[in-house]
Amino acid sequence: xxxxxxxxxxxxxxxxxxxxxxxxxxxxxxxxxxxxxxxxxxxxxxxxxxxxxxxxxxxxxxxxxxxxxxxxxxxxxxxxxxxxxxxxxxxxxxxxxxxxxxxxxxxxxxxxxxxxxxxxxxxxxxxxxxxxxxxxxxxxxxxxxxxxxxxxxxxxxxxxxxxxxxxxxxxxxxxxxxxxxxxxxxxxxxxxxxxxxxxxxxxxxxxxxxxxxxxxxxxxxxxxxxxxx
Length: 229
What we know:
Blueprint: H1 2-12, H2 17-38, H3 58-65, E1 71-77, H4 90-105, E2 109-115, H5 130-146, E3 151-157, E4 160-166, E5 168-174, E6 180-182, H6 193-205, H7 225-228
Parallel strand pairs: 1-2
Antiparallel strand pairs: 1-5, 3-4, 5-6
Helix pairs in contact: 1-2
């Protein structure tokens, strides 16, 4: 906006052209220098949503910081251009949440993204991409064994409604424990993604499975006749 204002003044007032040109040059240089200085800094983040949807809970921070080994999270997702309209920003949204969890964990959590296209698995007549297709199929086969598979999502096509197969899953790896999978991530479930992840992290960090005991009351309580039927 400032540069636009200087440009308008330059056009309307031709006399101080040199002075305005020099001011514009200096302003642009200062802006570039400020961006170079600010870019590597880790500035604070503020969650101004009513329910603090983007704030990591204290229980999550404690759980992640109590880990005695690195926790790896791998996001498997379809390419953005293959996603339906409502899923275009899903990869960015999930990555933002994983980054928030990494900050809260004190770098105990490490995450990465693997882009895999289900449509590439059906390509059979393109010899030029045969090697890439083989790699994709090998990855898809391994993911299928791990419990990660594409799912169908309704989409609006140019000539009507259709169904698109997409990948959107997270695999958690910790020590030599069995991997935990969040098999299906949808935009509407993003507010609950932290809970879904931490529920599985809690399973990973337990050396043994807890035993749950159900105890019935010693004395039978009277039951209404209609309920008894």
